[in-house]
User: What shape does this take?
Amino acid sequence: MAFTDQGHLTRHRTVHTGERPYECAECGASFTQKGDVVRHARTHLGDRAYSCHLCRYQASESGNVKKHVIAVHSKEYPYMCERCGKGFVTPSMLRAHLAAHVEHRHRCSLCPFSSNDKDRVLKHEKIHKGARPFACGTCGKTFKWHYDLAEHRRLHTGERLHVCSECGMSFTKRGDLVRHARTHTGDKPYSCHLCKYRTGDSGSVKKHVIQVHTKEFPHTCGHCGKGMIRFV
Assistant: This one.
């Protein structure tokens, strides 16, 4: 591969050497390029310098705002699948989608996943056995599935793709937006089987049953014996 700029060549070499010379002073996460550590640093400062001109969405990176405008507002996707017409924000998302149209030779014995790469299928099957091959480069947390890692990364970048059409509040997870939307509609689909308590969040019902009815707390303090719902 040839480069016209010495700086570009220097940055490219880090791909092969694994060198990550730019380190975050706050958490120690390291990066190959200075721009990456600058964007990462904004996650500690809560700095969201870029905002959507159509709603209250804000992000620490200009690219995330562009993706947001396309995905939420304009729906004018620059990358289209020629087979089914579905649109995508980035070329990598389109490439991942195109794989679904290809007939693969190797299939997972436990789910519909398939691939022409046998080793990839074998690695995938390990996930069913408890493997967590997808690791966050910032905090080290591991995940079974790549889409869970992608969603987790938004906690570090501050990216909030899911925006409430009612009030403009944004969220990193779609499930959080769904639960939030119920505060506007008043929808409370989850109910306690022991009393008339109703809520828009299934987790709140579980907490309610423990706190009000059973008193069977899953976590207990070894010093004072006080029961807790969560282990923090």
Remarks:
- The CA atoms of residues 24 and 41 lie 7 Å apart.
- The radius of gyration is 23 Å.
- The mean pLDDT is 78.
